[in-house]
Amino acid sequence: MAALTLFTFTSGLPASGRAVAAEARTVRIVAFGDSLTAGYGLPASAAFPARLEVALKAKGLDVKVENAGVSGETASQGLARLDWSIGEGTDAVIVELGANDMLRGLNPATTRAALTEIVQRLRARGITVLLAGMKAAPNLGKPYQETFDAIFPELAAAEGVLLYPFFLDGVAGDRSLIQPDGLHPNAEGVRRIVSGILPKAEELVAQVQAKGR
Questions:
Q1: According to DSSP H, which parts of 39-92 are helical?
Q2: Known catalytic residues?
C-alpha cells in the first residue's frame, strides 16, 4: 500500500478512515551484512538491497531497503557497529553475516555468540528480524560444517525470528551466477538470491504491518 500524503487525503475521511490513512507509511528495512549485502563488484543498483526493494515494490509493498553491508566483515565486527548502523525508525532488519567467519575458519561458537547478541539487541528495540543463513564449505571438515550450519536454524528457533536457511541457495556452486573471484554473485546471481528470499521478505513486511508500527 502506497504511503498517503495525510494533509491532502485525510481531511474528508471519517475517523476510522483517518486512522487507517495515518497508519499507512513506508516500511523501513535495513539489509545488514557483509560483501554479499554490500554488492561487491556490482553497481549499487544491482546490489541485493536495491534489487530486493524493486521486487517488494513490484508486489505492491511500500518499502525502503537500506544497504548496510560492509565487505569483509565478520559477525563480531557487525555486532561492533550495530547500534550506529541501524538507525531510529528502522522497522525490520535482514541479518546476513557469517560467511567471512566461515571462510576464515573462526570458531563457530564466536559466530553464534555475536549473531545471538545482534538478534537479541534488535528485538529489544522492537525491530522485526529475518536471519539469512550461511553454510560452511565441505573442505572445512564435517565437524566444523555441522557445527557452523546449525547456528542459523537453532538461533532463529530460539529467538523466534524468521529464517531464510541459505542466502546463496541456488547460486553457490553455479559458475554462471558467480563473479570471476569464485565467491561473489554477479548481477544474475543477485536476482536469483532475491527471487529465493522474496517470500520471506514479504513475510517480514507482513509481520511489521501486523505490529502496527
A1: 48-58, 75-80, 82-85
A2: 35, 181, 184
Tell me if residue 87 falls in helix, strand or coil: coil
How many other C-beta atoms can be found within 10 angstroms of the C-beta atom of residue 106?
Answer: 17
8 Å CB contact between 14 and 52: no
E-only strand ranges, 89-211: 92-96, 128-132, 162-164
User: Alpha-carbon distance 58 to 24, whole Å?
Assistant: 18
- How many residues are recorded in the chain? 213
Contacts (Cβ under 8 Å, ≥6 apart) of 38: 47, 67, 69, 70, 71
Of 6-20, 46-60, 102-116, least confident by mean pLDDT is 6-20
Contacts with 46 (C-beta within 8 Å, 6 or more apart), sequence order: 39, 187, 190
pTM (predicted TM-score): 0.88
Q: What's the distance, CA 112 to chain centroid?
A: 17
> Does the pLDDT of residue 201 top 50, yes or no?
yes
d(CA 155, CA 40): 27
Three-state SS at 167:
coil
Per residue in 143-200, pLDDT tens?
999 999 999 999 999 999 999 999 999 999 999 999 999 999 999 999 999 999 999 9
Strand locations in 8-81, DSSP E? Answer: 27-33, 63-69
What DSSP string describes 170-188? TTTT-GGGB-TTSSSB-HH
